[in-house]
Write a structure and sequence with these properties.
elongated, alpha/beta, 5-stranded antiparallel β-sheet, 6-stranded mixed β-sheet, 8 helices
Length: 360
């Protein structure tokens, strides 16, 4: 036992970061810190973000599955690491620092609301008060384009497909008790000015909602097919950048809006809340992509980052989905059919529901 204690003191980074403890009524995360390590903590309703400067543990992505914590991700940075903890609804977070001559430990307790870490209850405890009724989840669906802007045109017209898919997904989610907000519910634009139109859509991705999904149909100058999902970020791929410019309005407008979005991606690096949204946007994108592929058998074009203007300022997890290619002779014709559109809608809805249910 003495040898074990010595190893813990001398080599704190050899242990898990964080160390995890599951207890009755709370989940405990313990971060062993070297001398001089600094940290910052930020919290939203569903995410706890910790930034460490000095410690540089390896990357990890772990499901927890406790009643208080769904998962956590450790992301190394040049200065240390960021840790993103995805919280269950209705929890409280308490933190404290323990220091002695040889060790520093940051302890994070995530508690079921109104419950503190305690020993087991007495033989005849008083009944717990009824839990407050959970607020409904709110999802924003953005059918891309509309009105004066048809989007991609091939065997189908993008603005028609995206609206039809959004309405189908809305019906599925509402049956599961999810509240759905549409950026448009008919063939219209929010503004004839593209920057204003995209800005109004983006404003709906605010902290009163749970997630934002923008739905689009792709096109290509050479034959291409498949589904791809994006979360916000930068790209050096010229072909992808050309696609982003098209979705951001095309021409000089599209280039200007893309440049504005790219400048936002630089500011995200200093914003803890924005970074946590980015990590969970990535998780949402992977859930949706996997679910769409299972539902349709489509070609997997992957999950990628790109500076889409409509995603740039989202304060909630936000993604853009390209459900297929309008001008592909096979996929374009599939997108014409009711059966394929329903399969897409069901796959998209299942991916959203998995994320809302914390991966379950």
């Amino acid at each position: 036992m003495r040898l074990l204690a010595l190893l813990v003191v001398c080599f704190p980074l050899a242990m898990a970061f964080p160390r995890l403890g599951l207890h009755e009524g709370y989940t405990r995360l313990v971060f062993d810190l070297e001398k001089g390590v600094q940290y910052q903590i930020a919290q939203t309703s569903d995410t706890l973000t910790l930034r460490f400067t000095g410690n540089r543990p390896p990357a990890s992505d772990n499901d927890v599955g406790s009643p208080q914590v769904a998962s956590y991700q450790v992301v190394p940075t040049p200065q240390g690491a960021n840790v993103f903890v995805r919280l269950r609804p209705g929890v409280e977070v308490k933190t404290f620092l323990l220091e002695d001559a040889n060790r520093r430990r940051l302890v994070v307790d995530v508690l079921t609301a109104n419950q503190a870490p305690t020993s087991p209850p007495a033989a005849q405890p008083r009944p717990n008060p009824p839990k407050p009724r959970a607020q409904p989840k709110v999802v924003v669906l953005d059918p891309g384009h509309g009105g004066v802007d048809p989007g991609a045109v091939g065997f189908v017209v993008e603005k028609e497909v995206t609206l039809d898919l959004a309405l189908r997904v809305k019906r599925i989610l509402e049956r599961e008790g999810v509240e759905v907000v549409l950026t448009r519910n008919r063939d219209t634009h929010l503004s004839p000015d593209k920057a204003t139109d995209l800005g109004l859509r983006a404003e709906m991705a605010n902290s009163k909602r749970n997630l934002f999904v923008s739905i689009h149909v792709n096109s290509a100058s050479t034959p291409a097919q498949g589904i791809e999902v994006y979360y916000f970020g930068n790209t050096l791929d010229p072909a992808l950048l050309a696609q982003v410019i098209r979705e951001n309005g095309g021409g000089e407008v599209g280039r200007r809006l893309t440049q504005e979005a790219q400048s936002v991606s630089q500011r995200i690096m200093s914003d803890l809340i924005a970074q946590s949204n980015l990590m969970f946007s990535r998780q949402l994108a992977h859930y949706v992509q996997a679910s769409l592929l299972r539902a349709t058998g489509a070609v997997d074009r992957g999950v990628r980052q790109a500076p889409f203007y409509v995603l740039r300022n989202a304060r909630i997890p936000a993604i853009l989905v390209e459900v297929g290619f309008a001008n592909h002779p096979t996929e374009g014709r599939k997108l014409q059919t009711d059966a394929y559109r329903q399969a897409l809608a069901e796959g998209l809805a299942r991916g959203i529901l998995r994320f809302l249910n914390n991966g379950e």
